[in-house]
From TrEMBL:
Belongs to the eukaryotic GSH synthase family. It holds the Pfam family GSH_synth_ATP. It comes from the Bacteria. GO terms for molecular function: ATP binding; glutathione binding; glutathione synthase activity; metal ion binding. The lineage of its organism: Bacteria, Pseudomonadati, Pseudomonadota, Gammaproteobacteria, Vibrionales. This is glutathione synthase.
Length: 493
């Protein structure tokens, strides 16, 4: 970022927008229970309408593919076994998956009903076009913040039009619709009602309460307002919402008739949504003093899966959206996607947005160190969120430290270089303005599928999230990194 200590906008404009953000829940909770505004761009990013339409057409197909892969339990066990040996956390997930799905006879019994709430993240590469960065199948949040960012820029356009137009790249640009909060709520509510209807058909006499949604959260979470915005959207359409940590659930869950999931002092649960569970610390309870790390709380997750409840993310969905599975699907011929219900045309469409990936081996390391353009690759492990990518010359250093038994936990991926904005823009963080000359953006498209079928008003699509950052920064997360909240406007090329 570049800052020459000049005031680019009047402070009263900044104050007005900051108050709008806090008033509309676009904030992070601080340790002292105050709220800090989410950093944002003063004007949206620009994308060609044809590129956006391409992403709208391909993203639900990716969700369909991942949804069907996640229910192909033999394939998950066969294809991810080496990765599970190399990554202890995914090894634990594979053990849980084996417990849930290893016995063929159990597969015939009604149990968890898969609800895939997925965010597929893309960058529009200067040379190769829009490509997938990663699949997010667990804790795929910030849909509400994505919608709020679109609303924030509309607010700036309405209230401070001169400021908005001054920083807008193209005067002909039109905002892209974004109803992520409502569409995700519609998808979740649809799954909850279907589970409730299932039990009504079985004659469940205690089925009079509203459909009930359980969000599993991290203890002392600071990214709570995005979560609460989704809960409010659900409450508006008749769904009761409750929040619990895995630790709380370990003593509060029980089984009702016909594999009904029951929560103490609440009653039957229809839909479960994990905003936790993607790292060991989410399952760690020090007071349990366990011989095997995180056994009790991970078994709580497995206990939920043994019940007839709509669930995101299932253990198999988390495995199916891993970096290793992304690599396998990228390397696989398009014809093989037919196994999961995609036509050849659909498969080719999906393949068109998958960036090259390579497994780590002794030969791959030798190739990388002697022949590769190191700036054209990024090294990734299986971790979710920021801090799990290695760039440039540091890749060789990291590869040199890896033991052969750790290779399968890592992958090389084509590095994407998205378009930088044609004009500088203003980033606002902690109430302070900064001029950014090299802003680049990442677009995450949300989808919602229940039992493999779309459950939004937009054929499975459920809005978008734009995160922007200076091109010089590697970590672009809004929550953990140098990212800022942004929105999208479209132009005709």
């Amino acid at each position: 970022m570049n800052n020459d200590n000049k005031q680019f906008m009047p402070q009263d404009v900044i104050n007005d927008i900051l108050e709008w953000e806090i008033m509309h829940g676009v904030a992070f909770r601080q340790a002292d229970n105050t709220a800090r505004h989410v950093p944002f761009s003063i004007a949206p990013m620009t994308m060609e309408r044809s590129v956006y339409q391409h992403l709208l057409s391909v993203t639900p197909l990716i969700a369909k593919l991942v949804s069907n892969v996640s229910e192909d339990h033999d394939f998950l066990q066969e294809s991810l076994s080496d990765m599970a040996k190399a990554d202890p956390f995914f090894g634990r997930l594979m053990e849980l998956h084996q417990q849930a799905h290893g016995d063929v006879t159990k597969r015939q019994q009604p149990a968890r009903q898969p609800l895939l709430l997925m965010r597929t993240d893309f960058m529009d590469d200067r040379q190769h076009g829009a490509k997938v960065i990663e699949f997010n199948g667990i804790a795929a949040g910030m849909g509400p913040f994505g919608q709020r960012a679109t609303e924030l820029h509309c607010f700036v356009q309405d209230q401070w039009n001169d400021v908005y137009r001054n920083w807008l790249e193209d005067d002909t640009a039109i905002p892209a619709d974004n109803h992520g909060m409502e569409q995700l709520a519609i998808g979740i509510a649809a799954s909850a009602r279907k589970v409730k209807a299932h039990f009504a058909e079985l004659g469940d006499s205690a089925n009079e309460q509203k459909p009930t949604f359980l969000m599993i959260v991290q203890k002392d979470e600071d990214n709570v307002y995005d979560q609460h915005l989704l809960e409010v959207a659900l409450q508006k359409i008749g769904v009761r919402t409750v929040r619990r940590t895995f630790e709380q659930l370990s003593t509060q869950l029980s089984s009702g008739e016909n594999q009904r999931l029951i929560l103490e002092n609440v009653g039957a649960i229809d839909t479960v949504y994990l905003r936790a569970g993607y790292q060991y610390s989410d399952y760690w309870a020090p007071e349990l003093n366990e011989d095997i790390c995180c056994h009790t709380l991970s078994q709580t997750r497995l206990f939920i899966e043994m019940h007839y409840v709509a669930m995101n993310a299932t253990i198999s969905q988390q495995l199916a959206t891993s970096k290793s599975m992304q690599m396998l699907l990228t390397m696989m011929p398009a014809q093989e996607y037919a196994r999961w219900g995609l036509t050849l045309e659909e498969a080719r469409l999906v393949k068109s947005v998958l960036a090259d990936m390579k497994p780590i081996s002794k030969e791959a390391i030798e190739w990388f160190n002697t022949s590769a353009d190191k700036q054209e690759w990024v090294l990734k492990n299986q971790g979710e969120g920021g801090g799990h990518c290695v760039f440039g010359d540091q890749i060789s250093e990291t590869l040199a430290k890896l033991k052969p038994e750790e290779y399968d936990a890592w992958a090389l991926m084509q590095r994407l270089y998205p378009h930088e904005r044609d004009t500088p823009t203003i980033a606002v963080r902690d109430g302070k303005q900064t001029l950014v000359n090299d802003l680049v953006s990442e677009i995450g498209l949300f989808t919602a599928h229940y039992q493999g079928e779309p459950v939004t008003e937009l054929d499975g699509y459920a809005g978008y999230l734009i995160r922007s950052k200076p091109a010089s920064e590697n970590e672009g997360g809004i929550h953990s990194g140098q990212g800022i909240l942004d929105s999208l406007v479209l132009i005709n090329a």
